[in-house]
């Protein structure tokens, strides 16, 4: 399995990747000349655009502003967010922006990095850190994004780690995935949000992204050779972080190629493409969000997509079983035990 052959084999994912890349280029061109302190502020695209899986008629645009609060104050960050929102509204239309959802706030770099696992940490902070690493495509110029990655490299490579692997990163990946799963019922039951598309995404997109992140970390994550060193090389950690935000299908392909297991995930990719094709349709998404949950098992559209999600789950489990023994053992050690 190679990246090129994968993308040619999956036309819906290919189309989404091409649309995402073109849109991100357009966004970068639109904000490059804004008078913002980009050397101390990172603007990253998240969600479907961050995964390069966005569909023109179906995907909202989500972004995050992370600012170095040693050089940028909260008022400047808020003003920057306002300017960015206006530009993005012109590109996408306000109904397609995530301004009042998870990513409606800015995040200071100090809080993002010092409250890991502490009483002051929120699920939002965990979300910001994890998604910045795993699906955060930088769209701002300057050094802000590298500054953010370097700060997180110190968090995970020095202050919140132990042993010869960055196990705190593995913990974060697993913790975020479980939080997303747990928060689903709250958003549906307490906040009254539409359940249909969100349910499918949790069963497919989030699951696939988590698996690809976990395997990528096991295969390619930095480690210490105690014969030559006692501390992580921060530059090496930053270099690894720069590879983590590849689209899930590419992240998975890179990891599998590194262990000469190129073909083991092919069945799951076929199903993943099929789910994407369904959710790329604005009419299907509207149908799912208007479907009464009590009627879901009588609805042919929902039942078919749900069955694909069940099949994807099973195939990913089979993929684990087909991995080389040492990789499979490490995956179990780090993400199960």
Radius of gyration: 20 Å
Instruction: Supply the helix-strand structural class.
Output: mainly alpha
Mean pLDDT: 91
> Largest beta sheet: what is the strand line-up?
3-2-1-4
Uncertain residue ranges = 1-5
Question: What is the number of helical segments per DSSP (H or I, 4+ residues)?
Answer: 16
Number of domains: 1
Q: Which sequence of SSEs, written as H and E, runs from N to C?
A: HHEHEHEHHEHHHHHHHHHH
Q: Please estimate the helix content.
A: 55-70%
Strand runs, count: 4
Tell me, what's the shape? globular
Q: Characterize the main sheet.
A: 4 strands, mixed
Structure description:
- The protein is mainly alpha-helical and 337 residues long.
- It has one domain.
- 63% of the residues lie in helices and 5% in strands.
- It has 16 helices and 4 strands.
- It has helices at 3-9, 11-31, 47-50, 74-92, 109-114, 123-135, 144-159, 167-189, 196-203, 205-220, 234-244, 248-258, 266-279, 282-290, 300-322, 325-335; strands at 41-46, 62-67, 106-108, 137-138.
- A 4-stranded mixed sheet has the order 3-2-1-4, sandwiched between helices.
- Strand 2 (62-67), helix 4 and strand 3 (106-108) form a beta-alpha-beta unit.
- Helix 9 runs parallel beside helix 10 (205-220) and helix 10 crosses helix 16.
- The longest helix has 23 residues, at 167-189.
- It is globular.
- Residues 1-5 have low confidence and may be disordered.
